[in-house]
Amino acid sequence: MRTNHLKYILGLLLTVSVMTGCDQTFDEVNTNKVDPTSLAPSLILNKAIISTTYLDGFSTLGMLCYNFGIVQQIITPYGSSLSGGNYNQLNNGNASQVWINSYRNVVKQIVAVVDQTKSDPLQSNTYHCARIWKAYTFMILTDTYGDIPYFEAGQGYITEVISPKYDAQQAIYKDILKELDEASSALTTTQAAVTTDILYGGNVAKWKKLGYSMMLRAAMRLTKVDPATAKTYVTKAVTGGVLQSNDDNSVIRHTAIFNNYIANHLAAREKTNFYLAAPFVNFLKENNDPRLASIAVRYVGAKGGPEQVAARASTDPKVQIGMPMGYNDVTITGVLQQNGVASIWDFSQVNLNTVLKLDAPEFHITYSQVQLLLAEAAVRGWVSGAAADYYSKGIRAHLEQMALYDASAAIKEDAIQTYLKANPLDPAKALEQINTQYWVAAFLDGNEAFANFRRSDFPALKKNPYPGSEIKGDFIRRMPYPDSEIVVNSGNMNEAITRQGANDMDTRVWWDKK
């Protein structure tokens, strides 16, 4: 017994000795040096910026099925999971995608960056850049849905607010303008550039231009409801300095690995389902717009998807035929002959080798759009300079922007000059001309095209005549709140509905005044 007891004590002492020895270097041995426990705020900001684009199939479908269809640029005759603006019907799955993507993948990230950097003087530029992107993100959200969670949004991990109240759009826009004003002016060149910045590589001067250009866009949203505030902030934006060329555009660049997701989506499962809408094609065609050759392709005579082959592909503007509004895949077969096509598959589509090739860039705000907004501001007497000059620069900028998609989409200088000469600004039709050109300049940016169409009431589109429409008015005015909000935040949502109006597609957001 004594021998066994001694063995036990010796064994215990040896174990303690070994454990003590392990403890002495435990932290060193067990530290995973390649798996960080936190990310730099600048990298989280990049994640938020990238996530603002359409990174999954559902988000892309939401854009394709609603925004592009409402403004009559891209349309599908098919229903079921593809229904939306093409039928003026509610498709909960597609209508909720801006909400889901923005709150889950962008707001959470961007609010975290703002919180992590607000008290750190060494990260002040990251802080102010995050405020600018936060303003952009919430503009998209509130423009789409109206009253939304704003001041308490994204606070779940920070202040444990998991049922944020909905704020009135008027209050949201007031704060967005304040944030853009403060953040843009506070950016400084005295700090080292954040070279990991995915937009501008840490170029603070370009971020300032972005902030003031976003301020211009936000201010112009208020032309119907608060022109005095709109004028004030338009003036501030111009004084601060907006985008000065296409080199200043806010853009996400894609590669053969990191694809433009709309391009990816249309190149794969939806290749034969979406077509350029007749109102858009006809406008470009009737005005001899050289952009049509850069944007459109038609597989002439195709009678099915397998016949959409390179041998049939034509980018000749003369042969482009847009799909008429108001039909489904059955009823449209009755108007094929009068439209001069052999089948559904014979209508013009977006060219997947130019503006929607897999590595095509995706723009958030452009020099072209800025110049056209300044043209309208000049018409209203809010900025100095001739509206016609801004108008001409805005059109030229978008014509030149075609080259940024692909060399084959570039428009020659003589064609640009011919188009500008043939389309001068007519003071009697100035607002219509400016905002119709904005419609073209916002092509493939569905959020902005939808917002400015409601804000300006141009272009003068005709109501989609689909007989199964579920709206009372001529056009969809907003997206309803997602069904998920009924489950997780119904009290605050219902308060917003009481204040704003029915949770349907006819209710106008605050700035969309009749």
TrEMBL record:
Q: What PROSITE patterns has UniProt attached to this entry?
A: PROKAR_LIPOPROTEIN (PS51257)
Please give the coiled-coil regions recorded for this protein.
Answer: none
**What are the transmembrane regions?**
none
Which Gene3D superfamilies does the protein's record reference?
A: 1.25.40.390
Q: Which InterPro entries match?
A: SusD-like_2, TPR-like_helical_dom_sf
Name the domain of life this protein comes from: Bacteria
Which keywords appear in this protein's UniProt record, sorted alphabetically? Answer: Lipoprotein
Keyword hit for Protein transport: no
Q: What is this protein called?
A: SusD/RagB family nutrient-binding outer membrane lipoprotein
- The scientific name of the source species is Runella aurantiaca
